[in-house]
Amino acid sequence: MQELIRIVEDPRQCPYLPDESATLEVRLVTDVSLEEYGNLVLRGYRRFGIQVFRPVCTACEECRSMRVLVQQFKPGRTHKRVLKQNQNIRAELLGASATEEHVELFNRYHQFMHEHRGWPLQEVTLETYYRDFVAGGTSSGKQWLYFDGEKLVGVALMDEVP
Q1: How far apart are the first and last CA of the chain?
Q2: Cα–Cα dist 21/63, whole Å
Q3: Is 147's pLDDT higher than 90?
Q4: What residues form DSSP beta bridges with 2?
Q5: pLDDT per residue over 30-76, tens digit each?
């Protein structure tokens, strides 16, 4: 792994807990092996393009990475109800990619959150979507695509690590 930059940003208002401040440690890394990325994940890092980041807030520890051990997971009533409500949704697991359909869905979601939650308006292009979500991934980069009929209604990006 080659680290190009490592910074700890200045504290800012937390986007999730408005009464708290948030600080991120951000590293720009290239040539990351699957094992190296797995070790970063274990230390709380997440990937955004070629950036990896983790919260390093001094007064708060509410942001915690969560691991779901698939072999031990048992769906509860809420999970079963959600599955029933979405039984018409088809899911496909593929390698991470970027399409105009991804970009349109992302921009519609951010427009909705801007109108309903006051998020800063953010629009991406195919190039910026690829750079921010697909590029920099190892072979671990995958995506779940969710379809209602033939219409793309959801994208879940993930990295599968040892």
Answers
A1: 17
A2: 12
A3: yes
A4: 30
A5: 888 888 988 998 899 988 888 999 999 988 888 877 778 889 999 99
Q: What is the pLDDT of residue 57?
A: 92
CB 120 within 8 A of CB 114: yes
Nearest to 38 by CA among 6, 14, 64, 67: 67
135 pLDDT more than 90: no
Instruction: State the SS3 of 14-74.
Output: CCCCCCCEECEEEEEEECCCHHHHHHHHHCCCEEECCEEEEECCCCCCCCCCCCCCHHHCC
Contact 26, 51 (CB under 8 A): yes
Burial zone of 98 (CB within 10 Å; 0-12 exposed, 13-18 middle, 19+ buried): buried
Token pair belonging to 79: 């999970």
Q: Which single residue is written with the structure tokens 């048992």?
A: 74
